[in-house]
Structures are given as C-alpha cells and as structure tokens.
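Morning F.,

Quick status update on the modeling queue. The single chain you submitted on Monday has been processed. Sequence for confirmation:
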Amino acid sequence: MSSEYIEELNAFLSGEISAVETYEVALERTKDADVRQTMLKCQMSHADRVAKLTAEVRALDGEPAKSAGLWGGFEKMTQGSASTEQDAIALMELAEAERLVQYEAQQSIVCDYVRNIVAETLLPAQHETHLTVSTLLKNLEPSTVS
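Structure tokens below.
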C-alpha cells in the first residue's frame, strides 16, 4: 500500500516542483519590487510544499520525484512566452487556479493517507497562493506595468 502512497505523493511533488520552476521564469519578467516580493512569497510557499512532500515520500522509504516532468516543461514554455510583467502574472494566476482545481478534484480519488496531506497541507497553501496571485493581478494598473 505504501507504494500507492508514494506514487500519489510523487505526482503532487512533480506538480509543486513545476510551480517553483515556473515562478522562476515569471520572476525574470518581474520588475516592480512589490510585485517581485509577492511572487517570491508564492514561490517559497510552493518550495515549502516540495520539502514537505519530499519528506513524506522519504518517510515511506520512497524515492522522491526530482523533476517537474512533462507538464513542468509545458508550464515553463508557456510562461516563457509572456511578453510583459502583467502577462507573466496572468499566466501564474491561471496556473494557480488550475492547481487548485486539481487538488480539490484529487481529494475524492486518492487514498485516505494522501487525502489528509492534501486537505491539511496542500489545499490550504494552494488557496493562499491562488488568492495572492489573483489579488495581485486584479490590483495591477495596466499603465504602470511594463
């Protein structure tokens, strides 16, 4: 049974690694210091989830995922296409919303052990990063974004 837990946790871990890497690409487009600080806060939240998921997999004597996988490359490529800071933030908001929907949907199909991790750790943090980026995007004034 622990191999099932490890597989499910590693799937989430790959997604969180992807988020950290995608924020790195978005931060390359971020010029405003306050916007940058907010984006770094979100990136650190995902990095914290990477650390927690890695620890969970290791506690089960598993080998933690080391890469973001195929979707990570796709997210980075998409983010790399952003031509402005506002575009980069809009793409991050979309990615945060998609990850939130995935976590909510996954709760009903993963085993109880993993469901508890999603409900207690991943989902609350994901709600926070989605709200943070969504609020950031709504508060941007198009004339001040380059």
